[in-house]
Design goal:
Helices cover about 60% and strands about 0% of the residues. By secondary structure, it is mainly α. It has a two-stranded antiparallel sheet. Helix 11 runs antiparallel to helix 13, helix 13 runs antiparallel to helix 14 and helix 14 runs parallel beside helix 16. The longest helix has about 30 residues.
Length: about 525
């Protein structure tokens, strides 16, 4: 009985648990419910990662806790320290100074890019932007102090100016100069980033307070570049000033191009100076120094060529196509007429004498013309680097340099036409005057005036000679060069006064109807008005 009753009870008790098939949907729904929170949590984890990044933090959160500014200060300090670290790798020969290597190129640009990226990331938040600018003061001040401390022993070293200008034998800078140029290059790269972000400017309304840093970087560049360019200028100026004195040179044959000895020396030096200047003036602040240097040497050349005395072409020292007589040949001609009858004829010893050397090519002594020297010098000066015309900050300097070089070309054209005997053949007086006006349109008055005065007799045939301008205005030549011909600006200021004095002199000499007087009267009227 018990065995029959117990199965009945078990069957009735197991029926509520029999609906098992509906159970599989419940785990599926459970999986769906659990999978959605997992997806949301994973996506939220991915989106929260930028909040940890230093480069682009959310402005509101960073302003509240201030952790971003602390991390940025540490990051900038670390970047400054890395910028001054010694580079790794093999050491090139001749680069070590005191056990240190020069700062590699590109580190200043890398530091500037770091600062620019941080400022651009918060450009929509002016408060955070100003806070970042304030945080730049300390690391940049430390950087400027480190650069100054690194540069001071280099500039005070005798090796820095031991060779102020490169030579053909030593065209590259020495190790001390190389280290100083590396410091200047680092400062120039950082200043390029300052210019792109308009930091440290006088007209900056944000008040970033970085003007002292900018001025310090510019000063570092000037302390390195200015002495090196001055060394090249000190070597060039004597050569340019010597172009004022005509010198007779010997050329191998008739028709050969004769140049002044100084121009010949510059033909070897100018390529060396061009490479050195290109290396010195890689930074933007050094472009101003480069423009000043180019304008200065252009003016020296203009003054030298304009005041070179006119020398008539010297006759050749020997007939064209025949060898020049030497003392030995003259002695042979003299003794050949006094041969005694007992002397055996020279043909007796013809087989025993060595073959005679070929005769030397014919040579003549000529004085190079100022026009040819001016053309040759202009071709050499074009090799020198010039300020960039694409940058707004250096475009004005480039225009000034181009005008100075064009003046040298105009002076060479004037010298060629004045010295050409066919210049006024078949031309009326008005045509000659118009052509002179056209040639001298861009020339300074005090540069074209001595050329036209010395050509006075050749153009007008009224007087054999004209005294120098300094004698006309009753001052010494040195005082006239110092006070009136010191530069383009000073010459323009003195043009009117000197022009009136020369016109008064021509009035006394009775040459008011000359071409020079007409040209000068028109030029003075233009200056006065």
């Amino acid at each position: 009985m018990i065995s029959f009753k117990s199965p009945i009870h078990f069957r009735t008790s197991s029926r509520p648990t029999s609906p098992n098939p509906p159970s599989p949907p419940e785990p599926a729904m459970a999986l769906e419910r659990t999978s959605r929170p997992l997806k949301l949590s994973f996506s939220s984890f991915k989106r929260s990662s930028p909040s940890i990044s230093v480069s682009s933090p959310p402005p509101t959160l960073l302003v509240q806790d201030g952790s971003y500014l602390q991390a940025l200060s540490l990051k900038l300090s670390e970047a400054v320290s890395k910028a001054m670290m010694q580079p790794t790798g093999p050491v090139p020969v001749g680069e070590l100074v005191g056990g240190r290597r020069p700062i590699p190129a590109g580190r200043g640009r890398a530091l500037g890019l770091l600062i620019a990226s941080e400022l651009k990331a918060c450009q929509n938040n002016p408060h955070l932007h100003k806070a970042i600018l304030r945080s730049l003061h300390r690391p940049l001040s430390v950087l400027l102090g480190n650069l100054s401390g690194l540069l001071l022993p280099l500039l005070s070293s005798p090796a820095f100016l031991s060779s102020p200008a490169p030579t053909v034998q030593a065209p590259n800078p020495n190790a001390t100069q190389l280290h100083a140029l590396a410091v200047a290059g680092f400062a120039g790269e950082l200043l390029e980033s300052f210019d792109e972000m308009s930091l440290g400017l006088d007209n900056d309304a944000r008040g970033d307070g970085l003007k002292a840093i900018r001025e310090g970087l510019v000063s570092l560049i000037g302390r390195v570049v200015n002495p090196l360019i001055a060394g090249i200028q000190s070597e060039l100026v004597p050569l340019l000033e010597s172009l004022e004195n005509p010198v007779a040179v010997t050329v191998p044959k008739a028709g050969a191009k004769a140049l002044h000895p100084s121009v010949v020396s510059l033909q070897a030096l100018m390529p060396v100076y061009a490479r050195a200047l290109a290396r010195y003036t890689t930074t933007r602040p050094s472009q101003t120094t480069l423009a000043t240097f180019l304008i200065s040497i252009s003016w020296k050349a203009l003054v030298a060529f304009a005041n070179r005395p006119r020398v008539k072409p010297s006759p050749p020292t020997s007939p064209l196509g025949s060898p020049q007589l030497t003392p030995s040949t003259k002695r042979q001609h003299v003794t050949s007429g006094n041969i005694s009858p007992t002397t055996p004829p020279p043909t007796r010893f013809a087989l025993k004498l060595p073959p005679s050397r070929p005769s030397s090519p014919p040579t003549i002594s000529v004085t190079p013309s100022a026009a040819a020297d001016a053309r040759a010098l202009h071709e050499l000066m074009v090799l020198l680097p010039r300020p960039s015309a694409e940058c707004d900050a250096t475009r004005v300097a480039r225009e000034a340099v181009d005008e100075a070089l064009s003046d040298l070309t105009a002076l060479a054209t004037l010298l060629e036409n004045i010295s050409n005997p066919l210049f006024k053949v078949g031309k009326s007086r008005e045509a000659i005057s118009e052509e002179i006006e056209k040639i001298t349109a861009d020339l300074p008055t005090l540069i074209a005036l001595p050329v036209l005065l010395w050509s006075y007799s050749g153009v007008t045939n009224e007087t054999p000679s004209i005294p120098p301008v300094s004698s006309i205005i009753n001052i010494s030549e040195d005082e006239y060069r110092k006070n009136c011909l010191s530069g383009f600006g000073r010459a323009e200021q003195c043009s009117s006064i000197i022009g009136h004095s020369v016109l008064d002199f021509l009035r006394v000499q009775g040459g008011l109807e000359s071409l020079v007087a007409q040209w000068l009267a028109n030029r003075v009227d233009d200056i006065d008005h």
